[in-house]
Amino acid sequence: GESVGLHLPTLSVQEGDNSIINCAYSNSASDYFIWYKQESGKGPQFIIDIRSNMDKRQGQRVTVLLNKTVKHLSLQIAATQPGDSAVYFCAENMGGTSYGKLTFGQGTILTVHP
Amino acid sequence: DAGVIQSPRHEVTEMGQEVTLRCKLISGHNSLFWYRQTMMRGLELLIYFNNNVPIDDSGMPEDRFSAKMPNASFSTLKIQPSEPRDSAVYFCASSRGQQKYFGPGTRLLVL
After folding, report:
1. pLDDT level of residue B1 (50, 70, 90 thresholds)
2. How close B37 comes to chain A (CA, Å)?
3. Does the beta carbon of B31 lie under 8 angstroms from any beta carbon of chain A?
4. Residue B55 with chain A: CB contacts under 8 Å
5. B18 to chain A, minimum CA–CA distance in Å?
6. Coil, strand or helix: which one is A86?
7. By a Cβ cutoff of 8 Å, what residues of chain A touch chain B?
């Protein structure tokens, strides 16, 4: 029979538009969050991180927003380019004895049309 | 810096055979993580080491899987005997602190 896999959320945008990718995390004790980009045939690549004592952090063309009240994380990409097309994962890291252990979300497929 | 190095990049084997995946950490990093990625389950942490010591192996599927760090810069993940459901991409990642750097992965197909 047909196997059932993860059905990843998808986001399609035009080149030059801004993109917003959302993520709900599971553990209120998580104290560190990371966004990764994974291109086809490659390993996840670090984009930007944020600690739980912050609610916003900006990088080059990317901004991460953290809302601890509703356990929500978002990644904003400004002026999206075709090279941004990839699967984007959020990951959470619980502190204490789980230091270093990342739990990944299911991922979002971003497609940028020229 | 060459980054995290994994070998082989691709492996095709028959059910019942032993498979050994290898990972070389980034120089100076002291934590090593093995992840498995499948369409069914996404990215799953299998095991991680800190300073060569296994810290959490709760993600290792079963006794057929074992991982070692014979030294500070190298790790192996062994599957014996392999089964078709082990087919996946296996990533290792290294870190010093919280930021993790992933290798290119080993794509494993068990027939």
Report:
1. low
2. 10
3. yes
4. 100
5. 24
6. strand
7. 3-6, 32, 34, 36, 41-46, 49, 89, 93, 98-107
For residue A83, the SS3 value is helix
Query: CA–CA separation, B39 vs B42, rounded Å?
Result: 6
Q: Which residue of chain A comes nearest to B104, CA vs CA? A: A43
The pLDDT tens digits of the residues spanning B38-56 come to 988 899 999 999 999 999 8
Does the distance separating the beta carbons of B48 and A43 come in below 8 Å? no
**Per-residue pLDDT tens over the stretch A24-53:** 998 888 889 999 999 999 999 999 999 999
Cα–Cα–Cα angle for A51, A92, A64, nearest 5°?
50
In chain B the beta strands, taken as DSSP E runs, fall at 5-7, 10-13, 19-24, 31-38, 42-50, 53-56, 65-71, 74-79, 88-95, 100-102, 106-110
Query: Could B39 and A5 be called an inter-chain contact, meaning their C-beta atoms sit closer than 8 Å?
Result: yes
Asked if B75 contacts B68 with a C-beta cutoff of 8 angstroms, the reply is yes
Contact B100 A89 (CB under 8 A): no
Strand partners, B100: B95
Confidence of residue A102 (pLDDT cuts 50, 70, 90): confident
